[in-house]
Amino acid sequence: MKQVQMKVLLSIKPKFAEKIFNGTKKFEFRRSVFKNPNIKTIVVYASFPVQKVIGEFDINRIICKNVHDLWEYTQQHAGIDRNYFFDYFSDKENGYAIEVKRTRKYKKPLLLKENFNMVPPQSFAYI
To answer: What is the pLDDT of residues 2-14, one digit of tens each?
Structure first.
């Protein structure tokens, strides 16, 4: 029986979403991630002020490390600076980096309510 490929919708700040699609940000950082190992694709919702689903990317892998080791490993392609990174993970011992494999930016952005019947997720949502 063929397994249905699930996707996860992530809310990402527009400036970071743009960097993912232009190739300058190869890691999307998260304080926690989804538990389903079958997720292979992230659908990107660019948060305020864009508020649209602008594309998707395939996951190469998800890295979980101590935040200091995570920064050392990802800093070359983090798409954010050191201060932002450590502020984001300030109360965490470990962090996650979702490594971007292949991106697909939509020609026409989609609306969450009309196209997915969803509201913006706080962290992530299965779709």
So the answer is: 556 789 999 999 9
